[in-house]
Amino acid sequence: MKEKESRDYYTDNLAQVSKSNSVIASENIYNEKGALIVPAGASISADVAEKIASHKLSKPIEETVSLERSVSSQVIIAHFKKMPDHPEIQAIFTSEKLLAHFEEACKGIDRYPLINQKLTVMAERFPAIYKKAVFGAFLSMLLCRELDFTEQQRHAIFIGALARDIGMLHIDPKIVSKSGRFNAQEWRLIQGHVAISFHFLNLVPNVSQNTKVAVLEHHERTDGFGYPRRKLEFELSREGQVIAFSDMLIALFNKYVIELGYSMLALEPILQINASRHKYENAQAAIRIFKSLVAPMKPKHQGKKIGELVSRLSRAHPLFNLLFLQMQEFNELLTKANFGIDLKPTTHSLSALQSIMITSGISDESILRWIDSLKIDSMLDQDILEIEKYGLMINEGFWRFNELMKRFEVMLASNQIPAEKQEEYSRYFAQVKKTYSLLASLLTVKS
């Protein structure tokens, strides 16, 4: 595995691309000792890639090769126009005004041929990651305009959104393409794409420092649960959090709109729960954008299904509140014990979640009374919509609990809690897990 970890797989990806898009050495390729490895003009085949991989090069491989065809701004625009297959997204993507803004923003990418090269390889080798980059750049552009960012900021963010996952091209393609859960070693390698992307941008002439920082921070979160540096809100740039928010928005769109069939405005209550993860201003801006561009939300549940949803939410409400209190108490116990565990992320996350619960009313007892008063056979569409919105909010709140559970489990498994205290804390946490499991059985999103 050590060889796999140290190997740079970008050359392997170039070799695969060369089967349909000629990749040649644009100059002699030397190793660090000055020995010629590949002469100028040679094609980068699988055999050549294997030869290159066994050497440490004098220059990065991307600086010594050229592709017959590259993803330019015009190619990105053409791809963008073909991307949407969801009717609500089509309505946004085909807006002449928004398309004109996107075309203007895209022109900036042609200043950076090395990024064009990487996007070309990404589009061929990992089309889903490429589409996510283009979609993310578009969403980032919308947010920048809504938040009235300067032209310089908009450019930095747009380029960062396109380049943020370039590091994936240097990681074992089998891991990058893997479906299902990563093991710990694989997850560590995947997380490494952030640093790889950042270091690559240091090679690209004239890329702004704001773009580099934004890429380095695009998996950071304001509650300290992100990576690679687990920064908190006051330490994070606005640019990086716009890209991070766009990433989250794409994930929520795929989950709720594409997979589960909700309308796009169903994301509004979900964003309210996630508002603190990547700066409130981004969530508020996204909600304003959706309301101005998307048709009103329509009910998804009818008949027997709405009755089942109401029943589940009625039972979930008290469990949701109980789980929050149990987690809060467990976090306070660990804080008072002073075992040297870093509790800043969990404390910050619980505080942010409590604020959201209060402002959204998600945990208020009046909600439960209202749910219990509903007559299923005579519910109006507006009642169904409110129930669905509440269900989406409480479900997304549960996934915030899920993150906290994982963090607490890591703490208990560490050797930071003294052996004589392990049983006491494990016993308390078992009660938290019991409540969590009961809530999970009611709130796992059902289509």
From TrEMBL:
Superkingdom of the organism of origin: Bacteria
Source organism phylogeny: Bacteria, Pseudomonadati, Pseudomonadota, Gammaproteobacteria, Oceanospirillales
HD-GYP domain: residues covered: 107-303
Protein name from the UniProt record: HD-GYP domain-containing protein
A Pfam family that the UniProt record links to this protein: HD_5
GO MF terms held by the record: phosphoric diester hydrolase activity
